[in-house]
Amino acid sequence: MGTIRLGKRTDNRSPLIKDFVPLTNLKDLVFGAWDIFPDSAYDAAMHAGVLEKELLTQVRAPLQKIKPMAAVFDQYYVKRLNGTNVKEGANKMELAEQLIAEIAEFKRRNKCARLVMVWAASTEIFLKQHAVYKTLKSFEQAMRDNHKAIAPSMIYAYAALKSGVPFANGAPNLTVDVPALVHLADQNRVPICGKDFKTGQTLMKTIIAPGLKSRMLGLHGWYSTNILGNRDGEVLDDPESFKTKEESKLSVLEYILQPEVYPKLYKDFSHVVRINYYPPRGDNKEGWDNIDIFGWLGYPMQIKIDFLCRDSILAAPIVLDLALFLDLAQRAGMKGIQEWLSFYFKSPMTAPKLYPEHDIFIQLMKMKNTLRHLRGEDLITHLGLEYYD
Predict the structure, then answer these.
(1) Helix, strand counts (H, E) of the chain
(2) What are the pLDDT digits (tens) for 50-74?
(3) How far, in Å, CA of 41 to CA of 48, rounded?
(4) Which of 333, 317, 321, 316 is nearest to 373 (CA)?
(5) pLDDT interval class at 389 (50, 70, 90)
(6) Could you list the residue range(s) of the whole structural domain that residue 138 is in?
(7) Preceding amide of 195 cis, omega within 30
(8) What integer pLDDT is reported at residue 18 of this predicted model?
(9) Do 102 and 130 fall within a single domain?
(10) Which CATH number covers residue 239?
(11) In CATH, what number is assigned to the domain containing residue 142?
């Protein structure tokens, strides 16, 4: 649905992005998945209760054909889930080899020209950078040793990159954001991006915070709480998984507001994030924000936000966009971290020593300028003067 402006404003050239760059046609996509539950896509969708039953019955036949492969899973990393459709292996390297074989078989069986993998599974427990992540050699040895620093999401990322498959991380886990896997992506010329889909409350923060900063409105505090009832909410009810999500959600304001640059406005503001599991809410999560700001002469003001979101409805288009854009990136010869896709993430991956850009408007400009560059169009900086005759 998105368009992209080309040339001067007076040129009136604003094609659809899908017509401007050669994105794969939706009719040419085949979907597959791994899951710890054996339900077909249709049964899983019915159980999740996101979409109306009348709508799902219209696509019952194709969804029933999508049955998940057994997943790589370890309850140590996601405490609140337990499933039966799980792989077994002597060590984590053997599990990765099983995934690599399944990737090749899926490609052969479905006659696919190319593949993309998007991690849309649950948030794992909080992991810090570890010595075993430093090199590909140490990472692979840690897999053979069943090292606890190697989470299931990393096994998927490793299998994808070894198979030459672009990988996007939609959760706040480290996953592909470690030196060994970034190196493997560069080595195999595979694009990667992440992490943590930007959907509800954080989406609002990256829209509102740039506006406050642009008008030099100060911030005393930003209190955020969520109620969420789906499986994501159940997983995040575990403190270790919540810690991973909290780190992702807390970083946004610091980077946008730059308190070190604007200490009088943003130094030492209070930022609190809470997530509460409330089963009756299902997929319809609710994000409440109380924002204490101040303006001229320090006079206090408040902003209240109550965002009644539909989690999966916000996330699903992101998954599709990322699959199409990562495929485009690979065909264009782009490799490694794709920072131009930061638009979709709470904690965007960046090149070493670069801070992430969180301002959604800057992210969108960067993404569209990347697309213009790929097609040989002039980049739009909004600096040029355009005269009318």
Answers:
(1) 14, 10
(2) 899 999 999 999 999 999 999 999 9
(3) 10
(4) 333
(5) very low
(6) 9-36+71-197+313-374
(7) yes
(8) 96
(9) yes
(10) 3.30.360.10
(11) 3.40.50.720
